[in-house]
Amino acid sequence: MAVSLHRRTGAVAFFYWLWDGLDRTIFTAIKFSFPARFVSPFGFLGMLTFVVFVILGISGALLMFYYQPMLDRAWDSVQFINDEVPFGFHIRNIHYHGSNAMVLLAILHMYYQYFSGRYKIRNEILWATGVILGTVTILEAFTGYDVIFSERAELAISIAASLTTSIPIAGPTIRDAMFGSGFSDFVLRFYAQHVFLLPLVMLGLMAVHFPRFLVFDVPMVMAIGGAILVTGGVFPIDMGFKFEPTVPPGITVPEWYLTGLYAFLRTQYDKFVTGVLWPGLFIASFLLIPFIDRYKKFSWKDRPIITAFGITGIAQIMVTTYWGFYIPSDTTIPLVQRLVIDPVFLYTVMILLVPLGFGFSYMMIKLAKESERKAKLAKDKGPKKVATINLSQKWINWLIVALLAFQVFLNIAAYNAALTGMKNISLFFIGIILIVFAGFFHLYRYGLNQAKNAPPPPPVPIHEEKPQELPQSVPTSGKLPEEKSLDDSKKETKELAPQITPPKVQADLGVGTNTIPDFGSSDLKKP
């Protein structure tokens, strides 16, 4: 009786049934690619951003069970989640650090597309929706850390309300729609924007922005998830101070992705120019890049002006971000004086940074292009092969066993840490578990890929030539054969030497004085 080895039963059959159903309906126009080997994550940073968005949606839905969007209960409900709800500390840290990770991945994805010139493949719509999606992502993160209504959130809300009011004509109307009539109902409005309106806009933009062919790399997804958990374990987010209208707030700064804007606002220049107009021009310049870039090639080295402007923009963002975080530590200085930044000094530095950053970047790009040209000319003289690390099947098996053992240890350690109340340590261990799983999965994939490679061909056997026969007699004519030169005789001797078999000795015959008792060494001399 024959037994089929391809029969699917139980959970495997259900999984394939579910996947086939989704493939015929939802995934009809979207194809997922699971790479069989390591692929650079820069090529699918957008997919990793979407994965983090899903993590935020799940963790945010769990936080909604206990959060109360009311002015006098918002902060207390978050404290209850953080301290009393089982695994509430873990979920809150995952949600907070996941939001930072999503903003970071979105920015990296945008700049990777910028420097690689992907928008030149008739992808102007994808580029424009990506820039808008990145802006909405920052707004989503901004409304998220404001619903806690701490002192830090109150500062951010006050700045956002004043910036919205500074917009000509439509500013007051937008402020009333987003913030309400004051502190009495803005928490509920921010909550509605954070959990419904902005995610709905993001999903609509993602439906247009994401291509139909998506790369889903399991080890990278696990590594990103593990990195978020490890960050939450090493840097657990605190509650901050609850906002009290009767207590003057202390010195605080917004999140890192808004600190550069905060530096401009601290100059006390016109709010509309510093907080609305300049960020709007920055976003508009990114939107117009596909229509400005007329270079025919895609490499950043072949687009020196566009690349130099991009590097200059990154330099300005880094300088203003650091400036926004910097607050003099001298407490004898009045609070307002510590927060105010000299506008002349700041804007002078920013203006000088444009030609200096652009000129230096342009020069380095030209040098890199020249080095690449020389490297191509000297390619024939250089090494032909690149050194690679190829693990044998034995080493792959040992590494997989070691990773499995280490993962079992981490699971036990995380469980013990959770039982003893060490929340951040348990979160750290869970993140390491995911990272180890990512390494295990990649190593397993590497082993399968190595097994598919064809083995090297066997070495070709070398056939020995038969030794030439030596002359047995002298010619009958009595004459000796014609004498050869000394060099010819040496060559002939060298050619014949390896072909003449040496006489066998006692060790080669496999006999000895102790092998056969009646056979002595003297018998070898007999004829």
Automatic annotation (TrEMBL):
InterPro entries xref list = Cyt_b/b6_C, Cyt_b/b6_C_sf, Cyt_b/b6_N, Cytb/b6-like_sf, Di-haem_cyt_TM
Query: Compositional bias (Basic and acidic residues) at which positions?
Result: 480-495
Q: Provide the protein's localization.
A: Membrane
* Membrane association type: Multi-pass membrane protein
Q: Where is this region: Disordered?
A: 454-527
* One cellular component term from this protein's GO annotations in UniProt: membrane
The keyword Electron transport is assigned to this record: yes
Q: Which UniProt keywords apply?
A: Electron transport, Heme, Iron, Membrane, Metal-binding, Transmembrane, Transmembrane helix, Transport
Going by the entry's taxonomy, the superkingdom of the source organism is recorded as Archaea
In this protein, which residues make up the domain named Cytochrome b/b6 N-terminal region profile? 14-222
Q: Where are the transmembrane segments?
A: 42-67, 94-112, 124-143, 186-207, 213-235, 271-292, 304-325, 345-365, 395-419, 425-444
Query: Quick one: where is this thing mainly located?
Result: membrane
Please give a single GO biological process term from the UniProt record: respiratory electron transport chain
Example GO molecular function term? oxidoreductase activity
Domain Cytochrome b/b6 C-terminal region profile residue range list:
244-368
User: Gene3D superfamilies from the xrefs?
Assistant: Cytochrome Bc1 Complex, Chain C (1.20.810.10)
Please identify the protein, giving its name as recorded.
Cytochrome b/b6 domain-containing protein
**What is the scientific name of the source organism?**
Nitrosarchaeum koreense MY1
